[in-house]
Write a structure and sequence with these properties.
The protein has 668 residues and is mainly α. Helix content is 64%, strand content 5%. The longest helix is centred in the middle third of the chain and has 33 residues. The protein is globular, with a radius of gyration of 25 Å.
């Protein structure tokens, strides 16, 4: 499992691969020595990972490709003009960001209880894709094989947006760590990069020592729901408002889906680079910036179809139009030509994944992946007909203030202060207009569009993330302005009012943040926790008999109580081996199977491991699903009614009394 000796090297490598190239680029993009440190993690990740993936497509994945791609990105800085130092950024704000980023990472780590069992926090459910990190790092094939399903045992392809997992696999490859440790390190780095970006942008708008800290406080605030439940009762709140969903604050979303957060940071980076491109005067600089924008856009799409694909396609276009139409007209054609080049770069980089997603969507036969449906806001206490009318209005007037109290009010005030020239200079107003377009369109996408792929509305939940990042930065700038005015005799009343209101809204969102931290630290004990604690030995035994390119059959329903929702977690986190069917939940994200095919496969594996499988079922596992190995444990009913004992297709390779039986195909 994850240990500190395996986790720390991954974090250090993340700084080497991403923060160092990002700092070199940020220094040439108008950032001072210390201010560049805040932009560096997000900028470096958004450029190195898509560059490394593109090179790996050509030459395969190797340490040389990973390190060489970081060096290549670093060399791009030499083509940008030098800049002078500006006001020093408070480095202690980055320490604060790093501490806040521990909250999501702790949601990924296992917790050992007093009786030796393992407790896991709920977000680990969405980190079951760790199996993909192991697949990439171990077999080094790009595009990676599908670890969840491959017809007839073939390698298959992955249609899931996997760039974030590829980045984590880079860490695993260089450090030798397992995927779980690399995932935890990448989750921490994602939270740190997002928060550092927020702090750096706040400082850019208002270069005061307080702006980055206030922005981080605003970004860390959670929902008002716990406070409302304490005041009015949880049942009454859920009667008036639709129950809480994945539409939540930055720390919550990083805990569950760091790849969507990374995509959002890449979107913001792309818009900032666009603003720099519009203000530039040098053709050589424009060429380099176009390449960087293309890399950032590819990073956004490669990590999240919903954030970097649907949302940024609309919001990024809006930001580009705002910049293109803004004065002066000089340089407008060069700007538009460079953006066209950036679009071509991005399209070339994402083409393999885009084609895989198109083919997978056709195979699934699930219809249009996006529909225009208002985000549900009001609860069952309202008549359905009235909800249909009021939900679109309630999204902005009710839901956003409830879910994002720390950033919404102060962020809007921050935009107003920048546009009126009370905060930041004229040069930042053009950037602010582009960021405002990003915020408005991202929120509109979340409010009006719904994804139909999967069980959840991932588009509605994740589209808000670029807006949350930007609003948090502007909130920090606004609150810092209020603080500075509060100490001025002539404007003390206005400053105190702004500061007090903003801090109060942050404060009432903090109970939700503390509850998240408590859940991530403690985890949830389950009846399967003690068995899971012994599973590393099980999967080590499996790896002795089943090769990294073979597929293993195991019970998808085994240890299903580890999380509140059933998923094949022991295999996903510990096995480092491909499955011939990783379970219906994993297949929904990874396998190009129709709903009926997934259901049939789940029923087949359920029968076999329930001890009701026939010889024909066992033959189907081998010939149709390509299962090169099988593991049976006492948690499976098949332990006492084992259909593989008498099978002519499999032989017993190892048996551990009372713990496991491992079979391998006779024709291997």
């Amino acid at each position: 499992m994850v240990s500190l000796p395996s986790l720390l090297p991954c974090i250090l490598l993340a700084f080497f691969l991403w923060a160092l190239p990002g700092w070199l680029l940020a220094r040439r993009l108008g950032q001072g020595r210390t201010a560049a440190l805040a932009l560096a993690p997000a900028l470096g990740w958004a450029t190195q990972t898509p560059a490394a993936l593109a090179v790996a497509h050509l030459f395969g994945l190797s340490p040389v490709v990973v390190i060489g791609s970081a060096a290549l990105v670093s060399l791009c800085a030499l083509a940008l003009p030098r800049t002078r130092d500006e006001a020093p950024f408070p480095l202690s704000a980055l320490v604060f960001a790093g501490l806040l980023a521990l909250v999501p990472m702790l949601g990924v780590l296992p917790k050992v209880t007093a009786d030796g069992a393992i407790a896991l926090a709920s977000p680990i459910y969405d980190h079951a894709k760790i199996i993909l990190i192991d697949e990439i790092a171990q077999n080094r094939a790009i595009p990676p094989a599908n670890p969840v399903f491959g017809a007839g045992g073939a390698a298959g392809t992955v249609a899931y947006y996997y760039l974030w997992h590829f980045g984590a696999a880079e860490l695993a490859l260089l450090s030798g760590a397992q995927g779980w440790a690399a995932d935890a390190a990448a989750t921490w780095f994602t939270g740190f990069a997002a928060l550092a970006l927020v702090a750096g942008l706040a400082f850019r708008l208002n270069p005061s020592l307080s702006a980055p800290f206030l922005a981080l406080l605003a970004a860390s605030a959670g929902s008002l729901r716990p406070v409302l439940a304490a005041l009015f009762g949880g049942a009454r709140v859920d009667h008036v408002l639709d129950p809480a969903s994945g539409l939540a604050g930055l720390l919550y979303q990083t805990s569950w889906s760091p790849h969507h957060v990374s995509s959002a940071t890449a979107c913001v980076i792309a818009v900032l680079l666009m603003a720099r491109l519009r203000a530039g005067r040098c053709a050589g600089e424009a060429t380099v910036l176009a390449g960087l924008i293309g890399l950032a856009a590819a990073a956004a799409f490669g990590s999240s179809l919903w954030v970097g694909g649907v949302t940024f396609a609309l919001a990024g276009t809006a930001a580009a139009l705002v910049l293109g139409l803004s004065p002066p007209p000089v340089g407008r054609l060069r700007f538009l030509a460079a953006l066209a080049g950036a679009a071509l770069v991005a399209l070339a980089l994402v083409a393999p994944l885009l084609m895989a997603q198109i083919h997978a969507a056709a195979a699934r036969g699930s219809g249009m992946p996006v529909q225009m449906v208002p985000f549900p806001v009001l609860g069952p206490g309202w008549p359905q007909a009235l909800r249909a009318v009021l939900d679109p209005l309630s999204y902005g007037l009710v839901l956003l203030p409830v879910e994002f109290p720390g950033v919404l009010f102060a962020g809007v005030v921050g935009f107003a202060l920048v546009f009126t020239g009370r905060v930041a200079g004229r040069a930042e107003q053009q950037t602010a207009r582009a960021l405002a377009a990003l915020v408005i369109v991202a929120l509109a996408v979340s409010a009006a569009l719904q994804s139909t792929v999967g069980e959840n509305n991932d588009l509605g939940w994740r589209a808000v993330l670029p807006a949350v990042l930007v609003l948090a930065a502007f909130a920090g700038a606004a609150l810092a302005a209020g603080l500075s005015r509060a100490v001025e005799t002539t404007r003390a009343r206005t400053g105190l009012a702004l500061l007090a209101a903003g801090l109060a809204l942050i404060a009432i969102g903090l109970p939700d943040t503390l509850a998240l931290a408590r859940r991530n630290i403690a985890g949830e004990q389950s009846a399967d926790g003690r068995t899971f604690a012994g599973d590393p030995a099980l999967w080590q035994a499996v790896r002795r008999h089943v090769g990294p390119q073979e597929r293993i059959a195991s019970n998808p329903a085994r240890l299903e109580k580890l999380t509140p929702w059933p998923i094949n977690l022991s295999w996903a986190l510990l096995s480092r081996r491909r499955s011939c069917f990783g379970g219906e939940e994993m297949a929904l994200a990874f396998a190009p199977l129709s709903a009926s095919a997934r259901t049939d496969a789940a029923a087949l594996f359920g029968r076999v491991f329930a001890g009701m499988g026939t010889a024909e079922d066992v033959a189907t596992l081998r010939r149709t699903f390509g299962c090169g190995g099988v593991v049976v444990t006492p948690q499976d009913s098949a332990w006492t009614a084992d259909p593989f004992v008498s099978s002519a297709l499999y032989r017993l390779a190892e048996e551990k009394d009372g713990r496991w039986r491992i079979y391998v195909a006779r024709d291997h």
